[in-house]
């Protein structure tokens, strides 16, 4: 173990290993902060693309995902904080006796960073807990080192480094004072450039648990009707936790008045919109009355488009089990009358608002392709494939990797309908290559749907049953994801192959869905039984029941 010797008296000095340990710890935590610069936008994009999926997860996962969305404007601060920590770690290691002061300064900056998050984002429980834990951890280290006289050195040796050489004082300023000033000034500049409402709009999940209950948020909202966090908490409470239609309606109209760009307006009201179409129209009217105030807000037009599109296109319930499952998914009664005709007026409105959302999001990294995919899906449901093709092609040059699978799948569907079969095949290969929606980061439902479409092309265009069967089995070679584990997989290709007498690939396909993706799925179970019955008849034995 290295020791230092006093340059004046030649006395041995205490070991410097505690300073090194502290430097390594600070450096590791700083690297984590740097990693968040990339992790925050990445996780926020995942939440933006699949909000309903996160709503189905545990409350903690939903809260964390939405918190990432709120932190996106502040991602550069993580990087600034991380760089400051690395400089501090180097300073602590090289300046030895000044390492104690470096640690104190870094701890103060770290705690102030969490206080900043608390004040600006309302993440009280997360930030304050992290600050207290961090302060306690470093306080313990400093106390242990101080009581063992590991960091207190004679005044004459304060500038002695681990090499035994004198270190000019300007380097202490370089390592300690300059980074601190950069952090303070840089933070102030970054915060100043963030839109004001980005710091004020706090999601309800980041409120303390006790403030997410009616006895807390109702009195507060009576005095502060524009509070977004508690208004969203109210919507979620009266929609999912303790359903109350009248209170949900009241809070929805208040939300539409104060924050018409909140997506909770739509997602917490989906079931009630089905049950009370007149209420949905009133909410739409309130939103449309504010168009002039939100002409540049693409989130606002997205919410308005989804509200207009709601139930404008009847769901495809080809069999009784499809109808039953659709009703169950949206929490609707068994006697609910599902519309059978398209509401063209509302569909046209939705198309117009999607286009305005795309125009308002021009220059953004993620949203134009995301909105274009939804627009294309709506146009395809209306069988306006040429327009859908234009929407897809306009977004393709700007699509990010996270949006590529969905957009290319829509694009391939349009190409197939336009009889551009080879182009459709190429687009489907793009889907498979870009899909990382599986639970382990591999291909998920997008790739599965692409394989099924390739199989349908092989069967219907090429009359190639063998290739169609291979694509059918490739569809279940993907990883499970939130879609396949809750919805299963489309069965159209499997039914067609069964009609063609290919029971073996259908049996393997359905059996894999049940064992790998979704344990209970009646349509798949029924198709599996049919395949096994055909197999038994063909082999002259008794069919195996599922």
Word description of this protein:
- It is a single chain.
- With 546 residues, the chain is mostly helical.
- Helix content is 69%, strand content 0%.
- It contains 27 helices and no strands.
- Helix 10 runs antiparallel to helix 11, helix 14 packs antiparallel against helix 15 and helix 18 (367-381) packs antiparallel against helix 19.
- The protein is globular and about 80 Å long.
- Mean pLDDT is 76; it is low at 1-14, 122-128, 144-165, 193-205 and 542-546.
Can you tag this structure with a few keywords?
single chain, 546 residues, mainly alpha, 0% strand, disordered N terminus
Straight-line N-to-C gap: 69 Å
Helix/strand-derived class?
Answer: mainly alpha
Q: What is the average per-residue confidence, as pLDDT, rounded to a whole number?
A: 76
Proportion of strand residues: under 5%
N to C succession of SSEs? HHHHHHHHHHHHHHHHHHHHHHHHHHH
Radius of gyration: 30 Å
Tally the helices: what do you get? 27
Total beta strand runs: 0
Query: Which outline best applies?
Result: globular
Measured as a percent range, the helix fraction is 55-70%
Low-confidence stretches: 1-14, 122-128, 144-165, 193-205, 542-546
